[in-house]
Design a protein that fits this description.
The chain has 520 residues and is α+β, with helices and mostly antiparallel strands. The protein has 19 helices and eight strands. The model has no long low-confidence stretch (mean pLDDT 90).
Length: 520
């Protein structure tokens, strides 16, 4: 909804989410990868919002099945690949993500994972394809991208050592560098601008790795309930993966994928246990996964792949055909029953699409802690704030979040100066107004952030007082002040764009060279 509103205002690539913090906004789109919210906005153009979550989930699941089938055909017959793809789509963790967590970015990122394995391990050159997959992962979901890069390192190392295919290491390194470059327009600002927000609040108590190892208890009821569900799913997936691995080894299936998948499963099982705490603490960016059980997304892929390998070859007898048909029917029935009985749950009235639309149009939402501009307390931002008010003192109407978070703004409690405010424009990334008042401080319903460029009567204002709630505060003199605020393109954004453009040129040049070599 936010993206679609900004497209209609002429903003092609949004940075600021204006509906967060009850209209004060936050730089959510700087940090949240674009592919998921772009797809959601495109669906919102052609579908009612009540249909959009269903359509998004359907597209993600279909993409998962198609990409896994494309991968699996490299190492197994098509009927095995089709069955394994079905298992990947309807395994318990994917149902958990789709039905209970509604983690749409993670669900969409699952479509890239099989292609990551395919292009990392296939016999023929695939560095350019792998680079696109790595870029796609980072542009879809950051936690999934972190998992994907670590999983890539594991499977490539295992394949290179076990089969003496050292070229895989060079392919993975080159593809990773090129893929990160292609995603640079998102990654560079997302990395650099972390210093401008309270990013560490993403791993506060309850969101830390040590709070979510399997069957851990924190005392917070909802957290422990979700963790218990994820833990039992993990137990089921680990047991099924071990069985599939044992059968595939007895069947002497190809080592090219079997060995890397098995070792990856062992590594992921270790990462789900408290014994892996030292790894989580010292591995770059791994702690921002927040929940170790997110690795079940990759474990689901491993289970499906090993299951496909464990099945016998082409179905040539009636017994084979009957067995496979029975497996498909039983699997479909079990997963449908589990989805309906265990994962399906009614949506709370305040969370359904219609209610979200109403909230979006009428005051906005609570802010996201880790995207709060630093240093600020987003719990002190009041609701129902005017777009601009003029105060005699900087903190004349600040709220105390220790008493109540996000209370309604009370005019009687404000140290208001006499003023007249004329709003000329109030778009998401551009605001302008004329303020006639005594000397004081114009406080905007807008979180201050370094990317905002502020001018008063045509003169740039860089020194602005700070409030505990982080709202933009502009000193003004007595008389009429023309205030203009615009979201600017900062140096890190330009650097990211240049990096992506350079990587795209290198990718196209390499693709043209490879095509010429094939022709010759």
């Amino acid at each position: 909804m936010e993206v679609l509103r900004q497209w209609r205002q002429g903003v092609t690539y949004p940075h600021w989410a204006a509906s967060a913090n009850y209209g004060a906004g936050e730089p959510r789109f700087v940090f949240y990868p674009p592919l998921a919210w772009v797809l959601g906005a495109l669906l919102g153009v052609v579908l009612p919002w009540t249909w959009t979550p269903l359509a998004f989930t359907l597209i993600a699941l279909a993409a998962m099945g198609a990409s896994f089938f494309h991968m699996a055909r490299e190492w197994m017959p098509e009927d095995n690949a089709a069955l394994a793809a079905c298992l990947y789509v309807v395994n318990p963790y994917v149902l958990f993500v789709a039905y209970e967590r509604a983690a749409y970015g993670e669900l969409l990122a699952a479509a890239w994972m099989p292609l990551l394995v395919l292009f990392a391990l296939r016999e023929k050159p695939a560095m350019l394809e792998l680079a696109v997959v790595i870029a796609g992962l980072w542009l879809t979901n950051a936690p999934a991208a972190v998992m994907g890069c670590y999983a890539l390192a594991v499977i490539v190392a295992v394949a290179a050592i076990s089969e003496r295919r050292w070229v895989l290491i060079g392919r993975a390194a080159g593809a990773t560098a090129l893929g990160l470059g292609l995603a640079g327009f998102y990654l560079v600002p997302a990395i650099y601008e972390q210093r401008w927000v309270e990013i560490q609040r993403a791993v506060a108590q309850g969101m830390r790795i040590e709070d979510s190892f399997l069957f851990e208890h924190t005392g917070e009821a909802y957290h422990d309930q979700v963790l218990m569900t994820a833990s039992w799913i993990a137990v089921a997936l680990i047991a099924a993966t071990a069985l599939a691995a044992a059968i595939s080894y007895r069947a002497r299936m190809p080592r090219a994928i079997r060995m890397p998948m098995t070792v990856l499963a062992i590594v992921m099982t270790y990462l789900l246990s408290p014994f892996s705490d030292v790894v989580w603490r010292h591995s770059p960016e791994l702690a921002f996964l927040q929940f170790p059980w997110r690795w079940l997304l990759m474990l689901s892929l491993v289970l499906a792949a090993l299951t496909g390998l464990a099945l016998r070859g082409d179905a040539v007898t009636r017994q084979d055909i009957f067995l496979r048909t029975a497996v498909v029917v039983v699997l479909a029935g079990m997963m449908s029953a589990i989805a309906w009985v265990y994962f399906w749950q009614p949506c709370d009235e305040e969370d359904n699409a219609g209610a979200q639309q109403a909230t979006f149009r009428d005051g906005g939402f609570e802010g996201t802690d880790e995207y709060t501009a630093a240093p600020a307390d987003n719990g002190a931002i009041q609701r129902e704030l005017p777009q601009i008010r003029v105060l005699r003192s900087v903190g004349g109407d600040e709220a105390d979040s220790s008493v109540a978070e996000n209370p309604e703004w009370q005019t009687g409690n404000a140290d208001l100066a006499s003023s007249e405010v004329y709003i000329r424009r109030w778009d998401v990334e551009r605001m302008s107004a004329a303020v006639r008042s005594d000397a004081g401080f114009a406080v905007l319903r807008l979180m201050d952030y370094p990317a905002w460029q502020v001018r008063v009567n045509g003169v740039r204002v860089d020194a602005k007082p700070r409030r505990s709630d982080g709202l933009m505060t502009i000193p003004i003199l007595a008389g009429t002040s023309e205030i203009d605020v615009q979201y600017g393109t900062t140096r890190d954004v330009w650097l990211g764009r240049v990096l992506s453009l350079t990587a795209a040129v290198l990718w196209l040049g390499s693709a043209a060279l490879r095509r010429r070599q094939r022709i010759s």
